[in-house]
Structure formats: structure tokens, C-alpha cells
């Protein structure tokens, strides 16, 4: 009893390289949607971060991490799925480490290609093409492990985008359009990809990563509100065709009127007022057919920005170029989206693979011309309540100007940071200069020119 062996002492890790356990690291990193790293990887990353060599593998190291309590139990299927994903990730990490014996976080492009050729059958074929494009066009001659992690987590870093944009590698596999056995929702997503994206690698990436979460809510919501306001006005005025000819139409507090231009909200809310059912119907059809697919690809923030920018530019353009006329309708935003989409198709004509693109462009231009012609005719048609003229058509032109500038830059930079594009800042600056000019014009020009404006409604 007196000869008991002493327990072995354990060396305490130094604070510089201390790392959470593998279970804790996996839990924290999965919460951040990053591929989990093992404890040895965290130790290596900590060592790399303390050295002078930059690393691209960030690590989350919570100091007082506590396991979650009172969490609902996972089902057996969820646990099995989670274990399978962790096993797959650990498997690929082990393979990557075989080519990186010094734990630098990088491997050469030759070794990376060898890894893909040996084990690429385990990857989704579309992701494999992106990895091969990265290996073919990487000018540094080495691949970062975190780039590989980002791809497997459905994230594309700048290095991926630059490799794809600068490379001229021909895709060896069949095109997305040739794939068979797809469900109805998959065919819809594929159709949207071919309608909006000019590069096959981007179409495949969008097809694999789109989850419909969030759905294209902006264009649908704005359309529902516009229809609701039109129906309400139709009931109140007891008129649905050419509502603008009703004597009480201009008394609505939403439309833009030159005498009430100091009420700033009218520069935006006029989109909820339409001249009649013929005006509303064409705008709604165009913004749903064009706006919803664009929002599915580029997101509500970008497409909503183009739409709102076109709306504001339209009303400001009217206040500068057609100073005595009111404004109604969402044509400024609709024309901004359509002009951007058509310009993107023309600029990427060989890459756009949508069916009957020439015929469809002709139909779109005919519809736009018809709606614009209707607006011009209505503007110069004798007013039912002189001296106030009918609504202006200049808002259409303001929307077109936004579409072929800001809109084109947004549509041409799928999944890329707009703030990194010099052309983006040029057009944003031009837009802001126009807005400031229009504001000062509305403040001073009306009094200086001594215009005879129509009486307030």
C-alpha cells in the first residue's frame, strides 16, 4: 500500500497555443458555418498566427465556452447526418494534411490537382470544376486550406472568383442544361440560372447553392401593395380604367405633384398610384417576369436597390425636365430592372444561353415601347381638369438611365463585392451628383424661372 506509484504530471499548455477541445471547436465553428478543425489544427493555426507568415485559416477560440444546456434532443436521423458530415470533413482534412506535412496551411497546385484527381469522385461535380479552375489559374502556385473549406461550406472567396474570371479553362463536363432526371423545382432553378447568368461556372454554382431561403420577397411584396392600392382607389373612385381622368384622383397623398414637391415622401410613394388598369397590368407583368428571377439570383438587397434608385431617379427627372406635370406609376423602377437585364444580355450575348433570346428581347422592347408610347400619348392628351396636365412620361427615362449604369454593374458582378469595383463607385457618384442637383433645382429653379404651376389639388 505504501508503494503506490505517483500519478504522472501533465504539462500545462502555454496560453499562446492553448486550444479548446475538438468537440468544443467543432461546436463553435459549426455555429459559424465554418468547417470544424481538430484540436491539432487549432494548435497549428495558433502557431501560424503568432509567426510572421500570414495565414488564411482563422480560428475561433472561446475563452469561457460552456456547452449548451437544456437543448432539445436531436433525432437519430439528425445525429447520423451530423456524424456523417463530420466524418467526411475529417476524411478530407486527413487527405489535405498528407500533402502538407509541415502544417503550413498551403499545398502546391500540383499536389492539389493530384488530390482532386485521386479523390474527386467523392465531390459534387460542379464543386470539383470550381476547384480545378482554381488550381489551373492560381498565380501563387499554392492553394490555401481555408479556400477548400469555404468551397465545401458553399462559400466562394475572392481567390475563387478571380481564378474563374481570369481563367480561360474549358469545362470538361457536360453543361447544366444537358443534365436529366431533375425535379420540377430543380428545372425551375436551372431555368432562372440560364435566364440571368452568362457564365456556365456561375450557373452551376448558383444551381448547387440556391436554397430559396429567403425567397424573392421584395418584388412580390411591392407588387401586392401596388395592386392593393389600385383596387382601393378603384372602389373609392368607382373607376378602374383611366383613373387619372377622375377629378378626385390628384387629391391622393401618395402621388407626386409639382405644387407639393416639398413633401419628400411623394418622390417614392407615387409608385403605388397608377393611371388605370392598363398601366398597372403591364407594369406588374414586367416586374414579376424580370424582377423575380433577378432577385432569386442577386438577392433582395441588390435588386431592391436598383428598383428604388430607378423610382427616385424617375420622379427627380420629372421635377427637372417636366416641371409642371405630376407623376404616377412604378415605371421608373420597372424600366430600371428591364434596361439592366437587357443591357446585360447584349453585353454577354455569346455567354447567355436563354432560349429564343433574340425573339424575347424583341418582345420586351415592343412591350416597353408600347407602355412608353401610352405614357407619351396620355401626357399630351387634353386634361379633364385643366390647367393640370396628365402624368409625365419622363420617369421612364430616369429608370432607363439607372438601369444601364448602376443596374448593369450589379448584374455583371454576381457574388462579388460591389465596393471592389471602380465602375460601381463611378456610377454611384454620378447618381448622387444628379440627386443633389435635382434637390437644389427643386429648391431654387421653380422660383427663378417664374413658372406657372397648376394649382394644388
List the helices and strands and how they pair.
Blueprint: H1 22-31, H2 39-50, H3 76-98, E1 106-108, H4 109-119, H5 125-137, E2 142-144, H6 145-152, H7 158-166, H8 184-196, H9 200-209, H10 217-237, H11 266-269, H12 277-298, H13 300-321, H14 331-347, H15 357-380, H16 394-412, H17 422-449
Antiparallel strand pairs: 1-2
Tell me what you see in this structure:
- The structure is a single chain.
- The chain has 457 residues and is mainly alpha-helical.
- Helices cover 58% and strands 1% of the residues.
- The protein is built from 17 helices and two strands.
- The protein has a two-stranded antiparallel ribbon with strand order 1-2.
- Helix 16 (394-412) packs antiparallel against helix 17 (422-449).
- The protein is elongated.
- Residues 1-78, 154-159 and 162-172 have low confidence and may be disordered.
Amino acid at each position: 500500500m505504501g508503494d503506490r506509484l505517483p500519478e504522472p504530471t501533465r504539462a500545462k499548455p502555454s496560453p499562446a497555443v492553448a486550444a479548446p477541445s475538438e468537440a468544443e471547436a467543432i461546436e463553435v465553428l459549426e455555429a459559424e458555418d465554418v468547417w470544424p478543425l481538430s484540436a491539432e489544427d487549432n494548435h497549428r493555426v495558433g502557431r501560424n498566427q503568432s509567426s510572421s507568415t500570414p495565414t488564411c485559416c482563422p480560428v475561433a477560440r472561446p475563452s469561457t465556452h460552456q456547452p449548451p444546456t437544456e437543448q432539445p434532443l436531436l433525432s437519430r436521423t439528425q445525429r447520423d447526418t451530423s456524424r456523417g458530415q463530420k466524418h467526411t470533413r475529417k476524411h478530407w482534412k486527413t487527405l489535405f494534411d498528407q500533402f502538407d506535412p509541415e502544417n503550413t496551411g498551403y499545398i502546391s497546385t500540383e499536389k492539389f490537382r493530384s488530390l482532386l484527381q485521386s479523390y474527386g469522385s467523392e465531390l459534387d461535380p460542379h464543386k470539383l470544376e470550381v476547384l480545378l479552375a482554381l488550381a489551373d489559374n492560381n498565380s501563387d502556385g499554392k492553394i490555401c486550406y481555408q479556400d477548400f473549406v469555404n468551397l465545401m461550406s458553399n462559400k466562394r472567396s475572392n481567390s475563387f472568383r478571380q481564378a474563374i474570371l481570369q481563367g480561360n479553362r474549358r469545362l470538361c463536363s457536360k453543361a447544366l442544361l444537358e443534365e436529366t432526371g431533375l425535379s420540377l423545382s430543380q428545372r425551375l432553378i436551372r431555368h432562372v440560372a440560364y435566364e440571368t447568368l452568362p457564365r456556365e461556372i456561375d450557373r452551376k454554382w448558383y444551381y448547387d447553392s440556391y436554397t430559396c431561403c429567403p425567397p424573392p420577397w421584395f418584388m412580390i411584396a411591392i407588387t401586392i401593395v401596388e395592386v392593393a392600392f389600385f383596387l382601393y382607389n378603384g372602389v373609392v373612385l368607382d373607376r378602374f380604367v383611366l383613373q387619372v381622368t377622375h377629378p378626385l384622383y390628384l387629391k391622393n397623398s401618395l402621388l407626386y405633384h409639382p405644387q407639393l414637391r416639398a413633401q419628400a415622401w411623394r418622390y417614392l410613394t407615387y409608385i403605388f398610384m397608377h393611371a388605370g388598369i392598363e398601366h398597372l397590368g403591364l407594369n406588374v407583368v414586367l416586374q414579376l417576369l424580370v424582377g423575380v428571377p433577378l432577385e432569386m439570383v442577386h438577392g433582395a438587397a441588390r435588386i431592391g436597390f436598383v428598383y428604388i434608385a430607378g423610382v427616385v431617379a424617375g420622379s427627380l427627372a420629372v421635377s427637372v425636365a417636366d416641371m409642371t406635370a405630376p407623376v404616377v406609376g412604378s415605371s421608373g423602377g420597372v424600366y430600371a430592372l428591364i434596361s439592366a437585364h437587357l443591357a446585360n444580355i447584349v453585353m454577354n450575348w455569346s455567354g447567355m444561353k436563354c432560349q429564343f433570346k433574340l425573339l424575347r428581347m424583341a418582345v420586351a422592347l415592343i412591350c416597353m415601347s408600347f407602355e412608353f408610347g401610352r405614357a407619351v400619348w396620355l401626357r399630351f392628351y387634353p386634361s379633364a381638369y385643366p390647367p393640370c396636365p396628365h402624368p409625365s412620361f419622363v420617369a421612364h427615362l430616369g429608370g432607363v438611365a439607372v438601369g444601364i449604369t448602376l443596374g448593369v454593374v450589379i448584374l455583371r458582378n454576381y457574388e462579388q463585392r460591389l465596393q471592389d469595383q471602380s465602375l460601381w463607385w463611378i456610377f454611384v457618384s454620378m447618381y448622387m451628383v444628379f440627386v443633389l442637383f435635382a434637390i437644389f433645382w427643386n429648391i431654387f429653379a421653380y422660383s427663378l424661372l417664374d413658372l406657372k404651376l397648376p394649382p394644388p389639388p
